[in-house]
Structure formats: structure tokens, C-alpha cells
Amino acid sequence: MLLSRGREKERKRERERERENNKLRSLQLICCIIMGVQLAEGHQVEMSDVNYTDLEVSYHVRDALKSARLGQSDSYHELIGVLHHTERLAPDEVAMLVTSLKALSGAVSYIDSDHHKMLLSSISGMSLWNYGPDVMDVLVELVVALAAVSGKYLHLCLDMLVRNFVPPLSFLRLLQQPRGLAKKEQVLSRVHTALKEIADLVPLAPLRLEQVVKERMPHRSSKQPWILSVIYVENMLRLDGGAMGDLVGRTMLVEVINRIVELDVEIGWDELLIDDSNKGMFEMELEEGGMSSEAEIGKEKISKDTSNQKTLSGNDVAEHLDLLMVFIFEHLNLCYESGRLDQVFEVLLLSFQSTVLHAYKSKFSQFVMFYACSLDPENCGTRFANMLVDIYKNSTFVLEWRMGAVSYLASYLSRANFVSASYVVTIVESLVDWCLTYCKSQKGETNPKTHRVFYSGIQAIMYILCFRMRSALGVPCNETKLSLLPIRAILKHSLNPLKVCLPSIVHEFLQQAKAARLFSVAEDFPLLGVPESEISGDFGGLERLDMFFPFDPYLLKNSDRFIRPNFIYWSMVRTIYADDDEDEDGDQSEGSIDEDIEDGGRDDDIALDEFDNSLNKMSITPKSNGFGSRLQGHKQMPSRIRPSACPESL
Amino acid sequence: MEGLKIGDANLVVYLHPSKSNNVSDAVATQLSSLLFKFNESLDGVLLAYEPDVLGNLGTILPGIHPYFGVKLKSKLLLFNPKPEMLLEGKVVKISQQAIHMIVLGFSSAVIVEEDIREEFRYKIKRGKGSYVSGSQKKHKIKFGTIVRFLVKSFDEEVLHLSGSLLSTNTGSASWLHTNSEDVSQDNSNTKRRKEDEGRDNIVELSKRAISEEAVPLNTNPQTKKSKKRKGNDS
After folding, report:
1. How many CB atoms lie under 10 A from the CB of residue A493?
2. Do A204 and B98 touch (CB under 8 A)?
3. Using the beta-carbon criterion (under 8 Å), do B108 and A55 form an inter-chain contact?
4. What are the angstrom distances between the C-alpha of A499 and each of A445, A547, B63?
């Protein structure tokens, strides 16, 4: 035992001696280089004769830099040669590189942008990913020193660090292994620390950094693997969450959202839309069995037609977007935990107004807002809804934006299980008020194009009530409020909203209104059951804003876990007329419903846990399938976007 | 500290018609876009402004974009350090090779080893570096010290200062203030002289601003000419 310890100590000492020798040898080498003496093979120098301090070596480097200005550039070129050693460095070379870089850090004030262009370009071309921790540390030290010594080198240094956000292409395969991830952390932690150090020394550096990060962001059309773009975005979010978040976070978040929108619009609606527009959105969600079989068919089609470039590229984009969504959701969660969500949400709101709201039928980007609202419903959730109401009512905005805003509002209030029924009723009241005022100011007849903002508003009201009427009526004061709403007057107006709005929504709404006895449906609205009229849906225009429900079920597999617990699927909604049917059916059917709920609870409790109690005990149609199998069905992609198979962490 | 000046300027801010419902906010946004950037027209870095809009009438800018010009008179606080001016900065990093400082919280300044007079020697005590005067042991420059230094150059693009401690009226500001009567007297004379010059400059600027045509501050890229472009044109 004692012997083995002694051996270990001996080995340790030997290793230390070796390291010391390496250092001395490198000092000796660098001195030789600087003095213009080539160390010939076999030329021995007594180690004991070589004993230089870092400062002394630094002075030699200064001399080399000075002599380069005077045209004597031999030692200067030797120095540059040392910096170009990148691949598989021997311990000697590593020690030499470390010493050279350290010496350069002490001589940065001697670097001249005119005379030492090659040196500057060599430094800026160095990649931290190619070196071990020792070299990384001194290289970062050099870059920080260079950035702080003169304004001329600030951009170069920031650019060099930002380029290190992503690994070289040859490194990508290694990223799937633990040591690759460890290396990634080694590099990125140093890069971000260096950026912070530069910002501490040069207070206006973050302004420059914003520009550099924007410029260096991998372009969508570039042929680089998309995973690099994801890693880059990860770094941008790290900047937002880091010490410089207050300074650069705003720009980073806006750019990330822009990238998400960019990818979102690349996934065509054609791939998601079901051609039959008569088929209501409720039916689409209800038909679990049908949906899975559609998905199967889609899958078969894809497997048969593997040469189809469009489908493959679509999948690629979806995977890319999915991973970005995971990163941003995780980032928002961290912001919430650190108490920064309020500040971040302000940026998200502005970004939503300026990009997402205007993106033509955006499909996924809006879920960033949805998730942020779910983290803090009282504050963020309310601000989001209020903003949408304000845009809808503000006549200075373009009509399409207002219609888009009310579509977002309707979809958000219907789908977000974290929004209280009382708040939903308040917003509905506000929309009804606006619609009533509009009706009173109009005396014309049905005209989908002229009154499209009005029709989109009333459709939104009906859509929200289809989802939330029963839970709203569960609270007595809401029941009174809803029964007092002048919806009947609006629906009976000569503008004929029931003829223009989507028939599936009108039908569902009237059924529920009848069951809730909001007004006398049978007498006033014989339209019930009548198929789509010629003018229905016309108000949406070419963009079909009439059937735009932005928070329809989320289709990206990896990031779905963030949305699902906060989301109301139509299959979870218990309608009022269903209650009446159940009452009529009697005890036997109730028993079967309970069984369904129990099955569902066992199979998947994620969605129901956080949903309100009234919705918790709902039965789900169609009755042939259990709730668990239905949730499984939701996990299936109801479109041609296939589940992504990205590595969980990169 | 030198390098700061207050000036009155007559300005015309060109605004997009969409901003006509809230002119004062739009003017503030335009002026804010000039903050912490060197502006040749103003001959300095704008640090603060206090605009006063003159009248309710705007002038429509002829052209494709119907921008309208708002005339205003504004008090401006500008920063424009010149060589040989005395500035003060707080030390944020110190090493044998350089002393790094921040001036007025936004401008970085560096004094390299060659620009530190020989009287100061670099010492490391308990792992912390400092420059200590050989003749006056209490005259120390360490992390957090406010240092008075002479400006060598000013990079207008990055607002980066290069300074020097070669002159005897430079060093730790607090030490100079309490212990060096001669230096401070010299300093105050120099300072007074410079301040007088600065005041003259301000008066001159305001006179020029009032007598000459108003300086347009439109940030519309179509009407703005960069420095390089100007050079090429001429």
C-alpha cells in the first residue's frame, strides 16, 4: 500500500518536472525564434541556462513587433507561424503557443493595425474549439486585452468571439458525445466570460456586439447544417440570460423571434390545411380515429415518395423550428424563475406586434407568447389579451391587423386553460360592447367586405363561447353577465353576422346558446342546421382570416411538452348540450363516462392536472375511444409534419 | 474635468407623417438615437438634450417621402475630449502593461506602460496590482481609484480614449487634490484657462447655431451622408 503511494508520488513529481521542462523549452524556443536563431536539430541548450519570466518574454515579443514596423520581420513571421499551429499539437507546441499568446497579451499596445495585419488576421482566425483549456485561456486573455487597448480592435475581437459561438463543421459529430458537450461548455463559457470582460472595460462594446451578433447569424439560405443555427441561437439566448442581458437581451430576443417566424413561414399552410373548408375546426379535432388514419396515409405517402424534396425539406425545417422552440421555452422558464419574465415579456409583446401579428397565418411562433403567458397568467396573460383587444378596437390600425388581433384573442382565450373564466367573460363583454356600438352606427345590409372587422369580432365572440361557455356559466355572477349580454341584438341586426361567419362556429354556438337558454334560438334563428351559405366566410378575404385560429393544436413534437399542460383541446371541452343529453340518457351512460375519465387519468394526466375542475370531469366524444388513447392520438401528427428526431441536447 | 460643454442649438428634426400624432415623443426618439455617438455636426458626443419645439407648424420635405420638419431649439450637453485635455476616469483594471479606466460611465480609456511616468512603479500586494509613486508613497493608483490623466487621442467611432500619466499634474485625483498644492495650483490655472476657452467655445457654438441655418437632424438614410461618402464626393 505504502509502496504504491510512493510510486504515485514519484510519478506525479516526474509529470511536474516534465511540464516544467516543456515550459522552459518553449521559453527557450520562443527566445530563439525572436532573436532570429533557428534551433537546429540536435542543438542542445542547457535547461538551467534558460530562465525567463513572462515579462521578459513579453519584452522580446515587443521587440519583434517593433522590428516588424522597421521592416525586419523575420522574428515577427516566426511568431505568426507559431499561431498557425492548430492540428494535433504536441505538448511542446502547446507550451510554445501558450507562451507566445501570453507574451502577446503583454505587448498588445505595440500591435499596429497597419504593420501587423497578418498577426491580427491570425489571431482573429483562431478557433477556441481547436485547442485545450490552457490555450483557450490565454487566447481569450489576449483577445480581451486587444479589445480594450484600442477602439480599432474592438470589432475584430468581438467578431472573433462571436464566430466561436458555433463549432467548426468537423466538430459536429463529436457534439453528440459527452466529451463533445463538455468541450462545447468549455468554449462557450470562456467566450461569454470574455464578452462580459470586454463590456466591463469598454462600456459601449455591447452596442457593437449586437451588430456583430446580428451580422454573424447563420443565414437561412446558407448551406451550413441547420444545427449550427440552433447552437448560435442558444448562444443568443445565453447572452440574454447572462450578465449582459439588460444591455443586449432585447436585440437577441427580437432576432430569435424573427428567426422563428422565418422558419414558421417556410412551413407552408398547404401542408397543414385540410382541403375541405366546410369541415369545422371542432370536427377536425374530434375525429381522432380519422386523424390517425390520415396521418398513417400521410406517412405512407412520404415513405413511398422519399425523393420528394419539398416534403423532406419541410421536415427539416420543422425539426429545426422544434428545437428552437424548445430552447426558447426553456429560456422563458429560466427567466420566470429568475424574476426576469416581466422584462422579457415586454420585448416579446413588441416583437409580436411588429412581426408575428403580421406574418401571414403564422403557425408556431405565436406559441412563444402562449407559453410566456402560461408562466404568469395574471400579469403576462392579461397584458397579452388587453393588447389584442386594444389593437382590434383601434381604428388607426390596418383592417387585416385588427382582424388578425381578434383571431389571436379568440384562439388564445379559448385554448389557454390558465385564463380564468371571469376574465374571459370580461373580454367577451368588451367585444360585445364594441360590436353593438358598430351595429348601431350601421344601417346597411350584409356586406362581408365592408364590415369584415365586425364579422371577425362576432365570430371571435362565438368561438370563445363555444369553448368557454360552460366553464363561464359555472360561476353565478358570470351567468348573469352572459345572460345580460346583448348578443341577440347583434345577431339579429341587418348585417346578418350568422350568415357570414363560419357555419361550423355558428352551428356550435347556437347549439350551446340554446342549451344554456341565453336566448330563444329556435324562434329567432331558424338557421340552425342550415349548411354554409354563399357568403359565409367571405369576410376573411383571400387570406382567409375568417378561418385563422392561431392557437390551434400545436404540432411540433419535442416542444409540445411545454404547451400541452396548458392547452384546451376541443375533446376536453364539455358542452352544455352534452350535459342535457347525459341527463336524458340516465345513469347507465354516466357510468361509462366515468370509466372513460378514469382510463384517461391513468394513461395521461398531464393535461387534466392543471385544468379547472369543471373541465376536469368532462366526458369526451366520440365515446368509442378512451381518453388515454385519444391523447395518444393528439401526440400523432395530424399533418404531414413528422415528429422531429433531434438529439435532446446539443 | 474638461471635455464637456453645453450648447444651444437650433435644430430641424424630420419626422415620418405617421409620427404626427405625438411629435414630442418622436422628436425625443430622434434625438435619443444620437446619444452616445460622435456627431460631426454637433462636434461632440451627445450626452443629454432638452428640446423646445418652436411653434406648431412643420415644413414638408419635398420629395417622394412626405417627411415634415419640426424646428426646435435644444440645450445640448456634449463631450468632446481633445489632446492635452485633463480628464478623470475610474480604474476598472490594472496590470503592469496598462491601466484601464472608464470616463463618465460610458467611455473607455487606457494608459499603457510607456505613458506612465517613471515615478510610478508597479507592485503586487496580496495578489492585487497597483502603481505606487516612488517619491510619494501614498500616491497610489489601484482598482477603483479615480485617475486624472492627459488625453493623447480619442477614437470617435468607439469613444475610446488613450491617455497619459507623464505629466506631473496627473495621477490619483484624490491625492492630487489633497497633497499637491503646487500641482493643484498649476492644475487649477490650466483648468481655469481651459474652462475659459471651453466657455468661449460654447458661446461661439451657440452664436453660430443661432446665426447660421438650423442643423437638420433627420436620420433618414436617403438624406444622410456618411463621412466616407463625403470624402469620395469631394
Report:
1. 21
2. no
3. no
4. 11, 15, 48
Three-state secondary-structure class, residue B91: strand
CA A533/CA A535 separation, integer angstroms = 6
Residue of B nearest to A202 (CA): B108
Q: How far B175 CA lies from chain A's nearest CA (Å)?
A: 24
* pLDDT at position A426: 93
Contact yes or no for A148 and B97 at CB 8 A: no
Rounded-to-integer distance, Cα A640 and Cα A300, Å:
11
Please return the burial class of A185, using the count of CB atoms within 10 Å of its CB with bins 0-12, 13-18 and 19+: exposed
CA distance A110 to A76: 12
Residue A171 CB contacts under 8 Å (≥ 6 apart), including other chains: A129, A180, A183
Residue A26 has what pLDDT? Answer: 54
SS3 content of chain B, % helix, strand, coil (to 5): 25, 40, 35
Across the interface, of B96, B102, B160, the residue whose CB is closest to A151 is B160
Angle of CA points A221, A226, A228, to nearest 5°: 110
Partners of B12 in the beta sheet?
B71, B216
C-beta atoms of A201 and B108 within 8 A: yes
Which chain B positions have a beta carbon within 8 Å of A145's beta carbon?
97-98
**What is the average pLDDT score of chain A?**
75
Verify whether the Cβ–Cβ distance B112 to A149 is below 8 Å.
yes
State the nearest Cα–Cα gap between A544 and chain B, in angstroms.
28
pLDDT at A504: 85
* DSSP codes, A484-522: HSTHHHHHTSTT-HHHHS-HHHHHHHHHHHHHHTSS-HH
User: Which grid coordinates are listed for B232?
Assistant: 469620395
Dist. CA A14–CA A218, nearest whole Å: 47
SS3 of B70, please? strand
What is the grid cell recorded at B161?
480614449
Which position has the grid cell 415513405?
A303
What tens digit of pLDDT does each residue of B3-25 get?
899 989 888 888 888 888 888 89
Q: What cell numbers appear for A244 in the block?
A: 449582459
Identity (one letter) of the amino acid at B43?
D
Predicted local distance difference test score (pLDDT) of residue B16: 85
The secondary element (H helix, E strand) that includes residue B148 is strand B146-155
A452 CA to centre of own chain: 33
Q: Which residues contact A622 (CB under 8 A, 6 or more apart)?
A: A286, A287, A288, A289
- Flag if A204 and B158 touch (Cβ within 8 Å): yes
For residue A211, pLDDT over 60 is answered with yes
pLDDT band at B85 (very low <50, low <70, confident <90, very high): very high
Kindly state the cell numbers that stand for B91.
Answer: 480604474
Instruction: State the number of CA atoms in the 13 A half-sphere of B212 facing the CB.
Output: 14
- Spatial separation of the C-alpha atoms in residues A498 and A517, rounded to whole Å: 18
A202 contacts on B by Cβ (under 8 Å): 108, 158, 160
A148–B100 C-beta distance less than 8 A: yes
What does the alpha-carbon distance between residue A370 and residue A389 come to, in Å, rounded to a whole number?
16
DSSP secondary structure letter of residue A366: T
B108 and A202 within 8 Å at the Cβ level: the answer is yes
* Res A423 pLDDT > 50: yes
pLDDT above 60: residue A185: yes
Interface of B with A (CB under 8 A): 36, 92-93, 96-98, 100, 102, 105-108, 110, 112-114, 155, 157-160, 162
Among candidate residues A532, A447, A520, the one with its CA nearest the CA of residue A487: A520
With CB atoms and an 8 Å threshold, state whether A149 touches B98. yes
A109·B98 Cβ contact <8 A: yes
Considering only alpha carbons, which residue of chain B is nearest residue A58?
A: B97
Chain A hits for B96, CB-CB cut-off 8 Å, are: 55, 106
Between chain A and chain B, the number of residue pairs with CB atoms below 8 A apart is 59
